[in-house]
Amino acid sequence: MRARNRVASRERRRRVLRLTKGYWGRKKNVFRHANNQLQKGLTYAYAHRRRKKRDFRCLWIVRINAAAREHGLSYSQLIHKLKQTGLQLNRKMLADLALTQPKTFSAIVEKVKAA
């Protein structure tokens, strides 16, 4: 009779089933389906960690554009003039200022317009 390592194979299955806890249907309790779904889920997780950065940048741009248009500038004009004046504020900070501190944002826009 050949030797088998049942402990390792059982632990491997148990690990997959533990990671797929909460999935719907067979995907949570049948190893073959769970393993396929886990691989797919990990692929999506990897891709969407990168996608999240893209999505946040889009959100910041929309917020900056909306706030800049209240002051008579478009997003691209504002960014261009910020670079010309040498103000180094990234989009995340600009969007946060536009949302939480509109007076500070308007002061920045007025400074940029004057230059």
Question: What does this protein structure show overall?
Answer:
With 115 residues, this protein is mostly helical. The protein has one domain: Orthogonal Bundle (c-terminal domain of poly(a) binding protein). The protein is 76% helix and 0% strand. The protein is rod-shaped.
Main attributes of the structure:
mainly alpha; rod-shaped; 0% strand; c-terminal domain of poly(a) binding protein; 115 residues
Compact summary:
With 115 residues, the chain is mostly helical. 76% of the residues lie in helices and 0% in strands.
- Give the radius of gyration: 26 Å
**Uncertain regions: pLDDT < 50 for 5+ in a row?**
none
CATH superfamily: Ribosomal protein L20, C-terminal domain
Q: Give me the CATH architecture, please.
A: Orthogonal Bundle
Q: Main beta sheet: strand number and arrangement?
A: none
Number of domains: 1
Mean pLDDT: 93
**DSSP, total strands:** 0
- Helix count, DSSP H or I runs of 4 or more residues: 5
What is the element string, with H for helices and E for strands? HHHHH
Strand content: under 5%
CATH third-level topology: c-terminal domain of poly(a) binding protein
- Our measurement of the CA-to-CA distance between the termini, rounded to an integer number of angstroms, reads 86 Å
Q: Please state the overall shape, judged from the principal axes of the Cα atoms.
A: rod-shaped
Helix content: over 70%
CATH class: Mainly Alpha
Class from secondary-structure proportions: mainly alpha
